[in-house]
Design goal:
397 residues, 17 helices, mainly alpha, single chain
């Protein structure tokens, strides 16, 4: 029993602290940057430029991670986490250069995301009894707890409490990654890679798998919708009578509602394939945005978070399993990174368009845009991931 629980327990700490730190950096970016005198357009520009740089770096970083020989995947992830920790500490103790350092943190937090997923999948592929869904649920729990806690800390101690919380979380995250040796075992057991065919060597990953590009574009649309709701939560709840505390509570409710899906996902995979659950998740994204657009007050806004269960919660697990099942072993970190890059691009476009829409037409138009993009992503997933679809299967060499 101890042998069975240990990988899941250790990976649970990684997922929990990563997503809590992600909450501090991303979800509270508007709160923190508004306190520094930034406008909505400036916030959107900073987040979008950082996200664009992250998106450009993710395929390169993931390809490097797939080809590591002198450094394990765990050590490489720990290296980036150490940089993330140093950046947060600099923001806290040397607050003179807020803009550049905050951009640096936004880039790193998105580069680390696919690596944490790959660590868990590497342990599973190596034969360790790791329950990914249970571990990932800790990410939702601590994301929600961090949301509620940071909302109250900001009211009590001011915006500087955000980098303080981030620094503490990143210390724990770094130690947890260094202690997680299961991925190294599975990776080191793999033989040296065989010579690839010329077709496999040439071209981008996204062109070597069927329908990968349109599928990723659909994911981008879904995450434009999702990230509008999460990056601009503070501005969205204000017309409904909310403040930073209400924002934190809303995100906390959202995170709690993710838990049933995450705890039950291993069982759900015995009923339907990961492909089916990815396809279904598109409806959740759409109805989440539509519900927030139509919500007349905070009570309804809290109720609308139920769609987080069939949207983001379902996607975030199903997509990781889907990629791990479809993509060839030597390219799995790259596969996870391309889907993470689609999420990042969704964040970029949401941030860029969101700031402009907020200043031009307010939260109502912002939510209308989120609804339209969520609907577009839902349609793409429905078309590409239907029964007997060959989407994301390797093309014949």
């Amino acid at each position: 029993m101890k042998h069975t629980l240990r990988p899941t327990a250790q990976y649970t700490v990684i997922q929990g602290t990563y997503w809590a730190s992600y909450c501090c950096v991303v979800a509270f970016s508007s709160v923190y940057l508004l306190s520094l005198g930034f406008t909505n357009v400036q916030i959107g520009t900073l987040i979008s430029v950082s996200g664009l740089l992250s998106a450009l770096l993710q395929p390169l970083v993931s390809k490097l991670a797939d080809g590591l020989r002198r450094m394990s995947l765990r050590q490489f992830t720990a290296l980036l986490t150490a940089l993330f920790l140093a950046g947060g500490a600099t923001l806290l103790f040397l607050p003179g250069r807020q803009t550049g350092m905050y951009a640096f943190l936004l880039i790193l937090v998105q580069l680390i995301m696919p690596l944490t997923s790959a660590l868990g999948m590497a342990a599973i592929d190596g034969g360790f009894p790791l329950n990914f869904g249970v571990a990932r649920s800790a990410g939702s729990i601590l994301y929600g707890a961090a949301s509620a806690l940071c909302g109250r800390l900001v009211l009590e101690f001011g915006e500087r409490s955000i980098p303080a919380a981030m620094t503490v979380l990143n210390v724990i995250l770094l130690l947890a990654i260094l202690a997680f040796r299961f991925a190294d075992t599975g990776r080191s057991a793999a033989p040296e890679p065989q010579e690839e065919t010329p077709e496999r060597k040439g071209g981008l990953f996204v062109f070597r798998y069927r329908h990968a590009l349109p599928l990723l574009l659909g994911v981008v649309c879904l995450f434009i919708s999702h990230n509008i709701l999460n990056v601009y939560t503070f501005q969205i709840v204000q017309p409904l009578g909310g403040d930073s505390e209400a924002m934190g509570d809303l995100l906390f409710v959202q995170s709690l509602l993710e838990l049933p899906v995450m705890f039950l996902f291993s069982w759900m995979l015995t009923k339907k394939s990961s492909r089916f659950w990815v396809q279904l998740s598109g409806t959740g994204f759409f109805f989440h945005a539509l519900g927030m657009w139509l919500a007349p007050n905070m009570t309804v806004a809290y109720l609308v978070q139920i769609f987080e269960m069939t949207g983001y919660a379902l996607y975030t697990l199903a997509a990781i399993y889907f990629v791990n099942e479809q993509v060839e072993e030597a390219e799995r970190v790259q596969g996870q990174a391309w889907f993470a890059m689609a999420i990042t691009l969704g964040n970029v476009l949401a941030s860029f368009a969101g700031g402009a829409l907020l200043d031009w037409a307010g939260a109502w138009m912002l939510l209308a845009f989120a609804t339209v993009t969520g609907g577009g992503g839902m349609v793409v997933l429905a078309l590409l991931l239907g029964k007997n679809s060959r989407a994301l299967q390797p093309k014949d060499p």
